[in-house]
Write a structure and sequence with these properties.
By secondary structure, the chain is α/β, with parallel strands linked by helices. It has a single domain, classed as TIM Barrel (Alpha-Beta Barrel), CATH 3.20.20.70. The chain is 42% helix and 16% strand. The chain has an eight-stranded parallel β-barrel, surrounded by eight helices. Helix 1 packs parallel to helix 11 and helix 7 packs parallel to helix 8. The longest helix has 19 residues. The mean pLDDT is 97. The structure holds 1,3-dihydroxyacetonephosphate. 1,3-dihydroxyacetonephosphate (13P) binds next to strand 8. Homodimer. Belongs to the triosephosphate isomerase family.
Length: 251
């Protein structure tokens, strides 16, 4: 059975003072019934990991370079994230695809590097609103999956996140039927590429305007194994109810 995962993406938010939120989250959910992950800015991973030691809260990065080391000013390698205390790294987020010109081929190279360093790669895919309106959603998701996901992926080193670009930070979410259509499609595609065993073991997260008020409805959708949460992951007060809803969701 797949272990459910509540993942928070702090994006470029937070500070040392904000790490109190991780303490509060861990204190309020000592036995959450799901995996809990916070991906803060890279500078906060080491201090956050030190404070989260012994709690159910794991730490992750938001990006890494495809190379293990070298002349790449401003970049961070997967091994560096791991050494700082990260167990996961988000890759191919739409904000990096759009803001940094990341292609699916680059995302695959980064995910391969992350997996080689012993990190779980959380690979993000998602359609633009115009692509959904043109009924191209599944084509877009399928293409991004084929090009972004490394061949050596397993349920232990890959998590796949469906984040419709138009749902991120907008307060808009797809309907449960729309989420289910994409997640069932992703599951079938993973099974076809990797075989039923691996294909069924990869966790599928939904991301985009998840909050306490809509979490239970989203977690009831087939093949939704958790969430990748932006704005509502920044405080224990907002993220706690999402963690609780996931912990209480029927397997
Ligand atoms: O981009 C997201 C998580 O990676 C979603 O962001 P919001 O939850 O703020 O919509």
């Amino acid at each position: 059975m797949r272990q459910r995962l509540a993942a928070g993406n702090w994006k470029m938010n937070g500070s040392l003072a904000a790490l109190d939120e991780i303490d509060a989250l861990a204190a309020a959910h000592p036995d959450p019934g799901c995996e809990v992950l916070i991906c803060p800015p890279a500078t906060l991973i080491a201090p956050a990991a030190a404070r989260a030691r012994g709690t159910p809260v794991a730490l992750g990065g938001q990006d890494c370079h495809a190379e293990p080391a070298g002349a790449h000013t401003g970049d961070i390698s997967a091994g560096m994230l791991k050494e700082a205390g990260a167990s996961h790294v988000i890759l191919g987020h739409s904000e990096r695809r759009a803001g940094h010109g990341e292609t699916s081929e680059l995302v695959r190279a980064k995910a391969t590097a992350a997996q080689a360093a012993g990190l779980v790669a959380i690979v993000c895919v998602g359609e633009q609103l115009s692509e959904r309106e043109a009924a191209n959603t599944l084509d877009i998701i399928g293409g991004q999956m084929s090009a972004s996901i490394p061949d050596g992926s397993t349920g232990h080193n890959l998590v796949l996140a469906y984040e419709p670009v138009w749902a991120i930070g907008t307060g808009r979410t797809p309907s449960p039927d729309q989420i289910g259509e994409v997640h069932d499609f992703m599951r079938a595609r993973l099974e076809r590429r990797f075989g039923a065993g691996v294909g069924r073991s990869v966790r599928l997260l939904y991301g985009g305007s998840v909050k306490g008020a809509n979490a239970a409805e989203i977690f009831a959708v087939s093949n939704v194994d958790g969430a990748l949460v932006g704005g509502a992951s920044l405080t224990a007060a907002a993220f706690g109810p999402i963690v609780a809803a996931l912990g209480a969701a029927a397997p």
